[in-house]
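Notes from the 1:1 (GR / supervisor)

We went over the backlog. Supervisor wanted to see one worked example end to end before approving the batch request, so GR pasted a single chain during the call. The sequence is below; no edits were made to it. Supervisor asked that the structure be written out right there so they could see what the output format looks like.
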Amino acid sequence: MRALVVEDEALVRILTEDALLDLGYQIAASAASLNDAIRCIESVAFDFAVLDINLAGVTSYPAAELLLGKSIPFLFVTGYGARGVPPTWQQYPILQKPYHPEQLRDAIDRALQAGQTGRPAR
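Structure output shown during the call:
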Protein backbone atom coordinates (compact mmCIF):
# COMPACT_ATOMS: atom_id res chain seq x y z
CA MET A 1 0.00 0.00 0.00
CA ARG A 2 1.14 3.51 -0.83
CA ALA A 3 1.03 6.47 1.55
CA LEU A 4 0.89 10.23 1.22
CA VAL A 5 2.77 11.90 4.09
CA VAL A 6 1.85 15.50 4.88
CA GLU A 7 4.23 17.00 7.45
CA ASP A 8 5.86 20.44 7.51
CA GLU A 9 8.87 19.54 9.68
CA ALA A 10 11.48 17.79 7.55
CA LEU A 11 12.92 15.60 10.31
CA VAL A 12 9.48 14.43 11.46
CA ARG A 13 8.52 13.77 7.82
CA ILE A 14 11.63 11.62 7.32
CA LEU A 15 10.98 9.72 10.56
CA THR A 16 7.36 9.12 9.51
CA GLU A 17 8.43 7.90 6.09
CA ASP A 18 11.03 5.58 7.65
CA ALA A 19 8.42 4.18 10.06
CA LEU A 20 6.02 3.57 7.17
CA LEU A 21 8.72 1.83 5.14
CA ASP A 22 9.66 -0.33 8.14
CA LEU A 23 5.98 -1.28 8.47
CA GLY A 24 5.94 -2.45 4.85
CA TYR A 25 4.25 0.54 3.19
CA GLN A 26 5.51 2.51 0.21
CA ILE A 27 5.75 6.30 0.08
CA ALA A 28 3.78 7.61 -2.89
CA ALA A 29 4.50 11.27 -2.12
CA SER A 30 5.32 13.73 0.63
CA ALA A 31 4.08 17.27 1.13
CA ALA A 32 5.27 20.01 3.47
CA SER A 33 2.41 22.48 3.01
CA LEU A 34 -1.34 22.49 2.48
CA ASN A 35 -0.90 23.58 -1.14
CA ASP A 36 1.58 20.75 -1.78
CA ALA A 37 -0.80 18.29 -0.11
CA ILE A 38 -3.70 19.41 -2.29
CA ARG A 39 -1.55 19.04 -5.43
CA CYS A 40 -0.58 15.51 -4.36
CA ILE A 41 -4.16 14.53 -3.58
CA GLU A 42 -5.21 15.71 -7.03
CA SER A 43 -2.35 14.12 -8.98
CA VAL A 44 -0.75 11.17 -7.14
CA ALA A 45 -2.13 7.66 -6.66
CA PHE A 46 -2.01 6.49 -3.03
CA ASP A 47 -4.05 4.32 -0.66
CA PHE A 48 -4.07 6.39 2.54
CA ALA A 49 -2.68 9.62 3.97
CA VAL A 50 -0.95 10.63 7.17
CA LEU A 51 -1.82 14.29 7.82
CA ASP A 52 -0.08 16.54 10.31
CA ILE A 53 -2.83 18.89 11.47
CA ASN A 54 -0.70 22.01 11.86
CA LEU A 55 1.30 22.85 8.75
CA ALA A 56 3.27 25.97 9.71
CA GLY A 57 0.18 27.56 11.21
CA VAL A 58 -2.28 26.32 8.56
CA THR A 59 -4.51 23.34 9.26
CA SER A 60 -4.68 20.31 7.00
CA TYR A 61 -8.48 20.05 7.30
CA PRO A 62 -9.05 21.19 3.67
CA ALA A 63 -6.83 18.28 2.56
CA ALA A 64 -8.86 15.93 4.77
CA GLU A 65 -12.05 17.19 3.12
CA LEU A 66 -10.59 16.41 -0.32
CA LEU A 67 -9.62 12.93 0.87
CA LEU A 68 -13.15 12.36 2.16
CA GLY A 69 -14.52 13.39 -1.22
CA LYS A 70 -12.27 10.82 -2.90
CA SER A 71 -13.00 8.13 -0.25
CA ILE A 72 -9.30 7.88 0.62
CA PRO A 73 -8.61 6.85 4.22
CA PHE A 74 -6.49 9.15 6.38
CA LEU A 75 -5.31 9.71 9.89
CA PHE A 76 -4.20 12.83 11.70
CA VAL A 77 -0.99 13.33 13.64
CA THR A 78 -0.58 16.22 16.04
CA GLY A 79 1.59 17.40 18.87
CA TYR A 80 -1.45 18.80 20.65
CA GLY A 81 -3.44 15.62 21.19
CA ALA A 82 -7.07 14.89 20.40
CA ARG A 83 -8.38 17.64 22.68
CA GLY A 84 -6.94 20.23 20.29
CA VAL A 85 -8.93 18.78 17.38
CA PRO A 86 -12.39 20.22 16.61
CA PRO A 87 -15.25 17.79 17.33
CA THR A 88 -16.01 17.44 13.61
CA TRP A 89 -12.65 15.76 13.06
CA GLN A 90 -12.36 13.74 16.27
CA GLN A 91 -14.16 10.79 14.68
CA TYR A 92 -11.07 10.05 12.55
CA PRO A 93 -7.91 8.38 13.86
CA ILE A 94 -5.70 10.87 15.70
CA LEU A 95 -2.14 10.01 16.69
CA GLN A 96 -0.29 12.23 19.16
CA LYS A 97 3.37 12.99 18.50
CA PRO A 98 5.71 11.50 19.42
CA TYR A 99 4.45 8.02 18.64
CA HIS A 100 5.87 4.53 18.20
CA PRO A 101 5.68 2.70 14.86
CA GLU A 102 3.21 0.22 16.39
CA GLN A 103 0.87 3.10 17.23
CA LEU A 104 1.21 4.37 13.66
CA ARG A 105 0.37 0.90 12.33
CA ASP A 106 -2.71 0.69 14.57
CA ALA A 107 -3.93 4.13 13.46
CA ILE A 108 -3.43 3.17 9.80
CA ASP A 109 -5.37 -0.05 10.38
CA ARG A 110 -8.26 1.95 11.92
CA ALA A 111 -8.23 4.41 9.02
CA LEU A 112 -8.20 1.64 6.42
CA GLN A 113 -11.00 -0.28 8.15
CA ALA A 114 -13.09 2.89 8.26
CA GLY A 115 -12.33 3.51 4.59
CA GLN A 116 -13.54 0.04 3.68
CA THR A 117 -16.80 0.47 5.54
CA GLY A 118 -17.33 4.11 4.54
CA ARG A 119 -17.58 5.13 8.21
CA PRO A 120 -15.19 7.23 10.28
CA ALA A 121 -13.05 5.36 12.80
CA ARG A 122 -12.04 6.26 16.27
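Supervisor's comment: The beta strands are 2-6, 26-31, 48-52, 54-55, 58-59, 74-78, 94-96.
Batch request approved.
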